[in-house]
Amino acid sequence: MIGDLLFYVPLLISIAIGLLYFRDLGDVSQMVLRVKREHMHRFIRNEYVLIGTGLGSFFVTVLAHFLLDGGVDWLFWVALALIAFLYGFPWVWVHVALRNQKNSATYYSVEEAWDWVNPSGGVVVIEKDGVARAHPDNHIMRPHLAGNEEGLNGENVVMTYCALSNLGTGYVPEIEGEKVELEVVAQHGNNLILRDNRTGEPIQQIYGHREKDGEKSPGMKNWPTFRMSFRGFAKAYPQGQVFLNKPSENVLLRLFDMIVDVGYVPGIIRQHNEAKPLMDNMTRNDDRLRNKTYIWGVNIGRDAVCYTDDFVIEKGGLINATIGGRDVVVAYDPIYESLGVWYNDSGVAISEIDFFGTSDQGDLKRVETLKPGMFWHAWAEFYPHSDINRVGKAQG
């Protein structure tokens, strides 16, 4: 009687926690389930406590089965396989398959990168004082985080990337002077969720602040980020650095990565080509633009506006607008194949500006909150009040 009690009760606890773990952080579970954000945040905050409780409970089941003859043999072995999957898959996916390179990324010269990157392929770029780093989409899409101790010309900047929202944006991993230890853990609303391992708090990539701090907190400092073609990057920054996620020298790890990519890459291709989100955990639908339209979103204060590249080009490649009380200029450069947004504090409308921000009113500074080339449906999920293709000041 005692043996059976100590077999079944802990087993039920272990399976229940395992099911929650797989549902909330298993990722693939969201292809068939609508996981609530608050449930995901709960597990992110308490991952190791919950895992420890679940596995500890199963250990009691093991002892009860072998020492007290609790339960039945066939059920034990079925339960063992189930527990191994429910706990093993999410842990391996989060901590091995999505292992980030926030401190260990390797950057190569443009010359070497030509052998690894399509000339017309997109790259996400961060720059400081002429020193630039490019992150090709197909290389950054699985590590999700790239940076190293050397930093961007001495500045601690980490590139964060979400393949489901096609969003790459740079951050200084600090909040109010306190270091943030970033780890990739999940996604919701087709946007990456990170965790600050120092506090256990989830951080939505598009916002950059800890969930417990709320949107009024300063969050991590945005670093101006922009998109361009690789050939455009090579023209603009011939001495630039390029992040390459080359195959691991560890044979087993390389084989593991190949297996993961067999399932991962086709899904990302579908996300780019099919209107329906690959993981449809969206809370709203906004048909002002088609779902997978690439947009360049800017949020300043509580105001948010996004632009499509075709609209900017149709307007002659240059738009003056006001966002969040700040005058900005949006411009497309056909030589470097890049759309950028700059602050314009001159008080005079800009009539000419080049890729580097040199205008008829002097040198301008890039808007640091630009979200370049992300999917419309993901932007609209987090900025439902967003204006589209604003010219001049906001109406009303």
Structure description:
The protein is of the alpha+beta class and 396 residues long. It has three domains: 2-97; 107-243, 3-layer Sandwich (Rieske Iron-sulfur Protein); 294-388, no CATH class. Helices cover 33% and strands 26% of the residues. It has ten helices and 23 strands. It has a five-stranded mixed beta sheet with strand order 1-14-3-2-13. The protein has a four-stranded antiparallel beta sheet with strand order 4-5-6-12, with no helix packed on it. Strands 22-15-16-23 form a four-stranded mixed beta sheet. The longest helix has 25 residues, at 73-97. The model has no long low-confidence stretch (mean pLDDT 95).
Shape: elongated
CATH topology of the largest domain: Rieske Iron-sulfur Protein
The number of helical runs is 10
Task: Summarize the main sheet.
Answer: 5 strands, mixed
Indicate how many domains the architecture comprises. Answer: 3
The assigned CATH architecture of the largest domain is: 3-layer Sandwich
The N- and C-terminal alpha carbons lie at a distance of 73 Å
Strand order of the largest sheet: 1-14-3-2-13
- Topology, number of strands: 23
* Oligomerization: single chain
